[in-house]
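A.,

Following up on our hallway conversation. Structure tokens first:
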């Protein structure tokens, strides 16, 4: 695969130290590799990444605006808790914007992007029957959503949807142990990506909405 199913921690070339730190920490927080309530030690992170504290602190400020970390005076910075009560509010926004992004992607995607979408759809279909872990499948889910947002060719829409998909994914990862399987949720992407690649705006929007609704329903079943 090319870009869509690569490891989340691979930052694009040419990004700043602060951007690299932000992307790395963001995805660790989303996947709960950094657990809710865990302290965020800027010195420790800087040492791990081999960079100074300043870019790490810049990254942490951005993560606060994403509601992924919270800072307390004289106490420090911590990963935010996973608030299941936010599920309805997050889903409400995604039910409006995910179909819009998929519709726009079907209309706006370049020829090269459509080829990539088809390749990713094929890769997802190949996952059926494989013994992929739930965490690995969720990484695919994140990358597929980000690819669709990018294909929409609307940077503002992309930015908003990434933020809300991050929050939704955090809720999903928090509930993973209670889930019987996530493979069906991931396999839904294949038809969605194909519809976008085919330029079928109506079908793409419909499948995107169904996917978000299915996500919320699946979570509620195990609460």
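Then the amino acids I'd put at each of the 223 positions:
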């Amino acid at each position: 695969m090319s870009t869509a199913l690569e490891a989340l921690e691979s930052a694009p070339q040419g990004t700043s130290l602060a951007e690299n730190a932000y992307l790395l920490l963001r995805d660790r927080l989303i996947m709960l590799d950094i657990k809710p309530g865990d302290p965020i030690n800027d010195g420790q992170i800087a040492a791990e990444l081999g960079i100074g504290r300043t870019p790490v602190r810049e990254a942490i400020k951005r993560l606060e605006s994403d509601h992924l970390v919270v800072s307390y005076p004289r106490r420090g910075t911590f990963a935010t808790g996973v608030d299941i009560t936010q599920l309805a509010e997050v889903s409400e926004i995604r039910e409006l914007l995910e179909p819009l992004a998929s519709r726009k992607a079907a209309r706006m995607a370049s020829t090269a992007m459509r080829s990539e979408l088809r390749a990713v759809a094929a890769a997802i279909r190949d996952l059926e029957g494989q013994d992929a872990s739930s965490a690995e499948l969720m990484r695919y889910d994140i990358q597929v959503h980000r690819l669709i947002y990018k294909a929409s060719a609307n940077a503002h829409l992309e930015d908003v949807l990434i933020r809300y998909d991050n929050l939704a994914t955090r809720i999903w990862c928090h509930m993973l142990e209670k889930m019987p399987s996530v493979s069906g949720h991931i396999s839904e992407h294949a038809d969605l990506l194909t519809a976008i690649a085919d330029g079928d705006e109506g079908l793409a929007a419909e499948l995107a909405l169904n996917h978000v609704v299915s996500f919320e329903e699946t979570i509620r079943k195990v609460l």
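The longest helix spans residues 87-108. Curious whether your intuition agrees with the design.

B.
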